[in-house]
Amino acid sequence: MEKRYRDVGGHDGLGDRRYERYCGAFDWVVHCVEAGYFLEAIAVLDSIIWDRLSSRLGYLSGEPVDDRDTLGKICTRVTKRFGGKWGQIFCE
């Protein structure tokens, strides 16, 4: 099975495009909550959290993050790598 990795920002306006997608995603979450589609809102938020946490893990570890890893796997890698010190992970 071919490995796929999260694209690294900092080139070709990728950061701007991600920002626009985040804004759209948060607008969709608000719409879903107002319409009563709570599971859809949770799924979108899960995706955003995965993206941000995998980005941070890739930055701190210097290793690519497989884009098929689940949020649970990403959290496990973060806690094993940094000994569960969440403050150290995000305040470095």
Descriptive overview:
The protein has helices at residues 14-35, 38-61, 71-82, 86-91. It has 92 residues and is mostly helical. Helix 2 (38-61) packs parallel to helix 3. The chain is globular, with a radius of gyration of 15 Å.
Write the layout of secondary structure elements.
Elements: H1 14-35, H2 38-61, H3 71-82, H4 86-91
Helix pairs in contact: 1-2, 2-3
Give me some keywords for this one.
92 residues; mainly alpha; 70% helix
Provide the structure class. mainly alpha
- Alpha-carbon distance between the two ends: 34 Å
Based on CA atoms alone, the radius of gyration comes out at 15 Å
Total individual domains: 1
SSE series: HHHH
Helical stretch tally = 4
Low-pLDDT residue spans:
none
User: Which overall shape is indicated by the principal axes computed on the Cα atoms?
Assistant: globular
Overall mean confidence score, pLDDT? 82
Largest sheet: none
Q: Residue share in helices?
A: 55-70%
State the total count of DSSP E strands: 0
